[in-house]
Amino acid sequence: MSEEIEYCPAGHSSVDFAYSDCKNYILSDGRCDLCIKEHFIQGFKTWSSGNTNIDKIIQESQMNSIYERLHWIPYDNFQNIEHIEDGGHGSVYSAKLENGIKWNWNFIKQDWEYHLVGYKVALKEIKDSRFDIVEFLKVIKTINYYDYEFIAKFYGTSKNPSTQNYIIIMELFDYDLHNFLTESFWDLRWQTKIEILLSTAEGLGILHANNLVHCNLHSGNILNSADSAISVIGLDLCKLENDLILNSNNKNNKISGSISYIPPEVLRGNEFTKKGDIYSFGGIMYEIVTAQRPFADQAHDTFLMIDICNGVRPKASDFMLNWIPEWYLDLMYRCWSDDPSKRPTAAELVNLIWDVLERLDNNIVDNDVMRQLQIADENQKNTSESQKQELFELFSYSSKLHPQSYYISRYIHTLHGLHDLLEEIKSGKSSDPNLLIKSNVSSTSSVNTHNIDEETEIQI
């Protein structure tokens, strides 16, 4: 049985500091944190990503991270590569990590022990030249310093020798939240819905506590495994809050994301903030109780951006309202407030949702919130056949999605960037650069929208 010891054969002491805030951990079975760090450093000369900035971030991670370190993983370590889907910045594949990654230098065996040998991972090949992989890796290095439960794990980077595109290697999941809801919505009880919501809020709270802003929270970035209701947040546009604050005096002409999840202040050209993430969380709340993504029945164009800035929000179908507690709707619309200061914080969301889940776990119905949940569950169970048929029609892909809706991250012209063209776009004299597909279908709709502030004017 392994036990802690005072010295390793190399002379390192357990009272030495291996990391800035953590003393050296030495075990009799061959582990020594300082030995691990030294052997990672010795290996720096044996690999290179071809980018000195990427090399530096990986090296800093291997020297300073206690839990998940970043690695440069040779492309020939991947076997059985299979395409999964294309995204806004590239393509996603699954692959087997044939030889695993270095994990622990064993001073008894005088050799590396490897982690994730034969494990299936996700490969995100970056094909968008505007995606800043160096800044992204800085964020991952910050997150990897701790072992967080509600954030997807990232293992390192590689490069496709055929395309010369960089690859991000991360944990592989069975499906994203949207796919999960599409397949399982009818059978979901409030217990599971609240569990998903809480784990998402927990993940967002972790980011915000580390001064990070997600900037692209949507159901495609919330990932699930088949054997767990716990969701984890995937990161792709996550940024350090300090970097965003430095740019806060400058208006953006373009942004990246999906219009239906982007807060009005960002559509106007302002920087994303933590409060912007909370607005996006409102879209997650909407999808959990409707199985529909926000504004699925509308074109995702400049006209929708104007509507959102004027207070228009998605609205659940009338028969679905009996399934949704009033407190839940109130919280969702608080997240969607046009005034960022009126939105809850991630910590507040965690506390509110945790309180509800704790009562659900213990079958406690002692306040109005829990009574509303109980009634909503009963109403869903007692849904009529005609209402079920309406739901099935909503689930039909062709009727559910407007041909000009778009849920993959893309570059969008903000209202600030379009300032001089807005009137011409409205009159039809200029084409809308935010409209991806030409269609005769109107870009506005009175169905499934709710105006939270009809008197709000567009502020650019």
Summed up:
With 460 residues, the protein is α+β, with helices and mostly antiparallel strands.
Task: Tell me the overall shape.
Answer: globular
Rg = 24 Å
Widest sheet: strand ordering: 3-9-10-8-5-4
In total, the number of strands is 19
Total discrete domains: 2
The N- to C-terminal Cα distance equals 66 Å
Determine the CATH topology of the largest domain: Transferase(Phosphotransferase), domain 1
InterPro entries: Kinase-like_dom_sf, Prot_kinase_dom, Ser-Thr/Tyr_kinase_cat_dom, Ser/Thr_Kinases-Pseudokinases
Protein name: Protein kinase domain-containing protein
Keywords: ATP-binding, Kinase, Nucleotide-binding, Transferase
Domain Protein kinase: 78-360
Provide structural commentary.
With 460 residues, the protein is an alpha+beta fold. It folds into two domains: 155 residues, Phosphorylase Kinase, domain 1, CATH 3.30.200; 277 residues, Orthogonal Bundle (Transferase(Phosphotransferase), domain 1). The chain contains 15 helices and 19 strands. A hairpin with a 3-residue loop joins strand 4 and strand 5. The C terminus is likely disordered.
